[in-house]
C-alpha cells in the first residue's frame, strides 16, 4: 500500500491514540490508557482490538471506515476521497501520514 520502510511503532501509535490534538480517538473510543480521563463511549472500546481484527482490517478501518460501514462517524484517517466539509488546510491531504497509520495499527495490534 505504501513504500516507506520503517515498521509501525506501538509506542508512537499509543501516543497518537491518546493525543487530544492528533488522533482524537478517545473522543469516541475508550482505550486501556488509564492516564487519559474522559474517554468516549460512542464507538467500540479499543481494548482487545488486536484480538478482534487483523492488522489489515485495522488498517482498512482507520484508512476509511466508510468502506465497511457507510454510516460510520469515524474520520477517514488515510483517504481524501468523498469527504464533506474539508477545511482549506486539509484539502488533498490525509489526516495521518502512512507512518502514523502504521504506528496506530502497530499499537492496536498489541491490544489483545
Automatic annotation (TrEMBL):
InterPro entries: Cyt_c-like_dom, Cyt_c-like_dom_sf, Thiosulf_SoxX
Name of the encoding gene: soxX
Designated name of the protein: Sulfur oxidation c-type cytochrome SoxX
Keywords, comma-separated and alphabetical: Heme, Iron, Metal-binding
Record bears the keyword Heme: yes
Stretches assigned to the Cytochrome c domain: 8-112
A Pfam family this chain is assigned to: Cytochrom_C
SUPFAM superfamilies: Cytochrome c
NCBIfam families: thiosulf_SoxX
Amino acid at each position: 500500500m505504501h513504500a516507506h520502510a520503517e515498521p509501525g511503532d506501538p509506542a508512537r501509535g499509543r501516543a497518537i491514540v491518546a493525543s487530544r490534538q492528533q488522533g482524537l480517538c478517545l473522543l469516541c473510543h475508550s482505550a486501556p490508557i488509564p492516564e487519559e480521563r474522559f474517554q468516549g463511549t460512542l464507538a467500540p472500546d479499543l481494548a482487545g482490538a488486536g484480538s478482534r481484527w487483523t492488522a489489515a482490517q485495522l488498517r482498512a478501518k482507520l484508512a476509511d471506515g466508510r468502506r465497511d460501514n457507510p454510516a460510520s462517524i469515524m474520520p477517514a484517517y488515510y483517504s481524501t476521497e468523498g469527504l464533506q466539509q474539508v477545511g482549506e488546510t486539509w484539502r488533498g491531504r490525509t489526516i495521518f501520514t502512512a507512518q502514523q497509520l502504521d504506528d496506530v495499527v502497530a499499537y492496536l495490534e498489541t491490544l489483545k
